[in-house]
Design goal:
By secondary structure, the chain is α/β, with parallel strands linked by helices. The chain contains 4 helices and 5 strands, in the order βαβαβαβαβ. The protein has one domain (about 5-120): DsrEFH-like (Hypothetical Protein Ychn, Chain: A, 3-Layer(aba) Sandwich), CATH 3.40.1260. Helix 1 links the parallel strand 1 (about 5-10) and strand 2. The protein starts with 5 loop residues before the first strand and ends with a strand. The model has no long low-confidence stretch (mean pLDDT about 95).
């Protein structure tokens, strides 16, 4: 089995499903720390974590702090906030954490269809 050159993770869960949310961020951070190119997409309720301070409010026993996981991903990978999800929450480009970009489905589809890419949805 050939290993992926890039991992695209789409996380739809936020504080509404904390274990699923934490799993997505943990997998993204571990992959990034392992040298895998990571693209983490924030959609649905996870969109709130693109805002400064919001990840620090997230709590889940026995889980790594969300701000640390986000920092790990941003150190070598990319975090993208869904355009429609941002608009529904009145989040603009000037509102998000440094390093987070806002983009739409066209970019997501082009990322997951590229050679050597593995995609996960949480």
């Amino acid at each position: 089995m050939q290993s992926a050159k890039k991992l695209v993770i789409k996380v739809t869960a936020g504080a509404d499903a904390p274990e699923r949310c934490s799993q997505a961020f943990t997998v993204a951070a571990v992959a990034a720390a392992s040298g895998v190119e990571v693209s983490l997409w924030l959609t649905g309720e996870s969109a709130w974590f693109a805002l400064p301070g919001r990840a620090a409010e997230f709590e889940l026993p026995h889980a790594a702090p969300l701000p640390d996981l986000i920092e790990s991903v941003l150190a070598t990978g990319r975090i993208t906030l869904c355009t429609q999800c941002a608009a529904r929450r009145d989040i603009g480009e000037g509102d998000v954490l440094e390093g987070v970009v806002i983009a739409g489905s066209q970019l997501f589809v082009s990322e997951i269809m590229a050679d050597g890419v593995q995609a996960l949805v949480y």
